[in-house]
Amino acid sequence: MNSEALLDLSDGEIEIVLNDLVEVHGYDFMNYSRASLKRRINRLVANDKFLSFAEFRYRLRNDDVYFKRFVEEITVNVTEMFRDTQFYRTLREEILPVLATSPLVRIWHAGCSTGEEVYSMAILLQEAQLLHKSLLYATDINPAVLEKVRAGIFPMNQMKRYSENYILSGGKNDFSSYYIAQYNAAKFDEQLGKKIILANHNLVSDSSFNEFQLILCRNVMIYFDKELQERALKLFDDSLEPLGFLALGSKETLKFSSISHKYRQVANKEKIWRKIK
């Protein structure tokens, strides 16, 4: 038998794995996009050189350390600082001046991954002189990525691109003033990190935990099926103040959702909506 075939889990085996995750670990991935999930799981199985489904299943059910690795690999989303520069320019020029009128600014980064977008927001707030009265809630299903956000350390080899993104998004300062170079890593200013509150939060099963003026969930829901997208959007709606803003990823939309009538798109090209009802 071709050993390559053994590395490719069937739809039925993926279903068994998803049931195990709920039963043993309390993690529900049932409504994640099945094609994306299957691709990521099979890549993990191949990378970790499992020879049989039974071996992989046993390890996932019984080895807590390996389960953590599984969650990391399945949920980590690629991100970068000031990604989609026009989006950040819109935040800087149109959204932050509105938030500036609030006595306390509460922002939720849902599915924050390793935190590049959270630190980008902290820099925007600092430059708008709003950071002192802001709280940035950064949540993710994956505890390992939250530790990376807490550390505020990013690869030095990314700084050139991040600096270019920063300038294109309207940044006027020297981007390197926000971090200290440490060998091959960049450690970001602790004053930025002090305003970031970290929490493990599952968009599938957890409820609203605060009221926010701005919620960002970018390039997370593309991995959800329609039912889970709807559930997440209702959660954001419950968590957003009247006249608050909701920002999604470039391939995501509020259109066709049950809450769409309560929102007006702020800028046609950018996926930002304002709650008007």
Summarize the structure.
One of its GO terms (molecular function) is S-adenosylmethionine-dependent methyltransferase activity. By secondary structure, the chain is an alpha/beta fold. 43% of the residues lie in helices and 20% in strands.
How many beta-strand runs? 10
Number of domains: 2
Whole-angstrom Rg: 20 Å
Give the helix tally. 11
Tell me what the CATH architecture of the largest domain is: 3-Layer(aba) Sandwich
What is the CATH T-level topology of the largest domain? Answer: Rossmann fold
Question: Going across the major beta sheet, what is the strand order?
Answer: 6-2-1-7-8-10-9
Major beta sheet summary: 7 strands, mixed
**CATH superfamily of the largest domain, called what?**
Vaccinia Virus protein VP39
Organism: Dawidia soli
Domain CheR-type methyltransferase: 2-254
Protein name: Protein-glutamate O-methyltransferase CheR
GO molecular function: S-adenosylmethionine-dependent methyltransferase activity
Keywords:
single chain; 277 residues; alpha/beta; Rossmann fold; three-stranded antiparallel β-sheet; 11 helices; globular; Protein-glutamate O-methyltransferase CheR
Molecular structure report:
By secondary structure, the protein is an alpha/beta fold. It has two domains: 3-74, no CATH class; 85-275, Vaccinia Virus protein VP39 (Rossmann fold, 3-Layer(aba) Sandwich). The chain is 43% helix and 20% strand. It contains eleven helices and ten strands. The protein has helices at 3-6, 11-25, 34-47, 53-62, 64-75, 85-99, 116-127, 143-151, 159-168, 190-193, 226-239, and strands spanning 105-110, 134-140, 153-155, 179-182, 185-188, 196-200, 212-217, 240-248, 263-267, 270-275. It has a seven-stranded mixed beta sheet. Strands 3-5-4 form a three-stranded antiparallel beta sheet. The protein is globular. It starts with a helix and ends with a strand.
